[in-house]
Write a structure and sequence with these properties.
The chain has 118 residues and is of the alpha/beta class. It has three helices and six strands; from the N terminus they run αββαββββα.
Length: 118
């Protein structure tokens, strides 16, 4: 809900719609980088573009995916926080590296005992 509250600062006067959560993990290209799964951004663009074309383009300025998974644009990059493809009005932003427990994988966290460090 924080994202919806921030919208008034970035898009004043625009109506913002929060769409349902999507599980993209089985359909998108990924790699393992130092034991952390990373998803390639072009998969997000393709997914968002397909969904966007099913709606009225005059009513939708842009579509942005927000994820807690790590992302990368191509093989020569380690990671990025976010990226957009302006011509298509789509973008993706990752909060993964802002998590204080990053780079621990979800599986590692689930198997770790809780301590004062957590």
């Amino acid at each position: 809900m924080l994202l919806l509250n921030l919208r008034v600062h970035f898009f004043p006067g625009c109506e913002i719609e929060l769409l349902p959560t999507s599980d993209f993990s089985k359909d998108m290209k990924f790699r393992e980088n130092d034991g952390i799964r990373q998803y390639r951004t072009d998969g997000f663009y393709n997914y968002l573009s397909q969904k966007r074309h099913k709606r009225n383009p005059r009513q939708e300025l842009l579509r942005v995916a927000v994820t807690m998974d790590d992302i990368y644009p191509n093989e020569s990059w380690n990671f990025i926080y976010g990226q957009a493809r302006g011509i298509d009005g789509v973008g993706v932003y990752s909060f993964a590296r802002l998590d204080p427990l990053f780079p621990a994988s979800t599986q590692t966290l689930l198997l770790s005992p809780l301590t004062d460090d957590h």
